[in-house]
């Protein structure tokens, strides 16, 4: 609990066996009430390790994509009566020790969402971020700040915290099942008028940490540009897109393809 609010950590997992335990061990359970992991049909021992650690697990019987994984994460978090949901990758690229700072921004009532920024503090490159990823991050962020009318240091971190209200309001089911889901969700958060805060977060790039390849990165970048343009057009009244529509499909009235593994809670 934090300020009387239930804090739940969700981990969208795919082939995270080599880093899951290290990530889990760094989670501050003095404020985190529960950890929930969704395994997107991993080909390694991710699920077995998660069970051994006592993590509440859910399984996609086939690989449905990173965005779909998060849809399941947030749906189950809402069903578990979470007040604050922190999304943490189980690849140990982001420091779980920052969770109190992220959750604290939301628990304070001053922000509805919080981001763990790799750019604040100026040490992204020291943490091993490849040059092309760093340059793309800076370009895309500048483009988005211009079209979205915001002033964030980056839009592409995978370390985030959201209030229950945000998750109940956003039409997340309209978003992609691929990596651009992250960016669409953040754009929606801003579009619907929620307040977004940031904290500096160290990042680690190492062989075991997950990372999309150059081709997928290009696809993601193009998706980011498209999302920003849609946001701008709808704000100006020149376009209508379901990802920015209050009538879009949210999580609570949608079914999703998942199975609760035998022997696990849930």
Give your account of this protein's structure.
With 266 residues, the chain is α/β, with parallel strands linked by helices. It has a single domain, classed as Spore Coat Polysaccharide Biosynthesis Protein SpsA, Chain A (Alpha-Beta Complex). It contains eight helices and seven strands. Strands 3-2-1-4-6-5-7 form a seven-stranded mixed sheet, with helices on both faces. Helix 5 packs parallel to helix 8 (214-235) and helix 7 (181-191) packs parallel to helix 8 (214-235). The protein is globular. The relative contact order is 0.18.
Name the descriptors:
single chain, 266 residues, alpha/beta, Spore Coat Polysaccharide Biosynthesis Protein SpsA, Chain A, seven-stranded mixed sheet, 7 strands, 35% helix, 13% strand, globular
**Can you write the helix and strand succession as a string?**
EHEHEHEHEHEHHEH
Tell me the strand percentage band: 5-15%
Uncertain ranges? 261-266
Please give the domain count. Answer: 1
What is the element layout, followed by pairings?
Elements: E1 7-13, H1 20-25, E2 34-39, H2 46-52, E3 56-59, H3 66-79, E4 84-87, H4 99-107, E5 113-117, H5 131-148, E6 160-163, H6 164-169, H7 181-191, E7 196-200, H8 214-235
Parallel strand pairs: 1-2, 1-4, 2-3, 5-7
Antiparallel strand pairs: 4-6, 5-6
Helix pairs in contact: 5-8, 7-8
Summarize the structure.
Helices cover 35% and strands 13% of the residues. The chain has helices at residues 20-25, 46-52, 66-79, 99-107, 131-148, 164-169, 181-191, 214-235; strands at 7-13, 34-39, 56-59, 84-87, 113-117, 160-163, 196-200.
């Amino acid at each position: 609990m934090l300020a009387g609010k239930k804090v739940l950590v969700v981990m969208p997992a795919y082939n995270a066996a080599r880093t899951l335990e290290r990530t889990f061990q760094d989670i501050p359970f003095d404020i985190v009430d529960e950890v929930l992991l969704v395994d997107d049909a991993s080909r390694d021992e991710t699920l077995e390790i998660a069970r051994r650690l006592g993590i509440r697990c859910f399984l996609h019987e086939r690989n449905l994509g990173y965005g779909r994984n998060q849809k399941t994460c947030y749906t189950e978090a809402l069903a578990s009566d979470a007040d604050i949901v922190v999304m943490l990758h189980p690849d140990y690229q982001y420091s779980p020790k920052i969770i109190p700072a992220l959750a604290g921004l939301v628990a304070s009532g001053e922000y509805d969402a919080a981001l763990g920024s790799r750019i604040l503090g100026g040490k992204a490159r020291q943490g091993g971020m490849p040059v092309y990823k760093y340059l793309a991050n800076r370009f895309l962020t500048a483009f988005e700040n211009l079209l979205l009318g915001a002033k964030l240091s980056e839009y592409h971190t995978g370390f985030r915290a959201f209030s229950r209200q945000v998750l109940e309001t956003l039409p997340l089911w309209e978003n992609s099942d691929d990596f651009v889901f992250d960016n669409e969700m953040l754009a929606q958060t801003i579009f619907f008028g929620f307040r977004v805060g940031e904290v500096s977060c160290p990042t680690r790039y190492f062989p075991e940490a997950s990372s999309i390849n150059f081709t997928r990165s290009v696809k993601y970048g193009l998706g980011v540009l498209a999302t920003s343009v849609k946001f701008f057009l709808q704000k100006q009244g020149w376009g209508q897109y379901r990802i920015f529509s209050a009538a879009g499909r949210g999580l609570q009235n949608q079914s999703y393809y998942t199975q609760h593994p035998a022997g696990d809670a849930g």
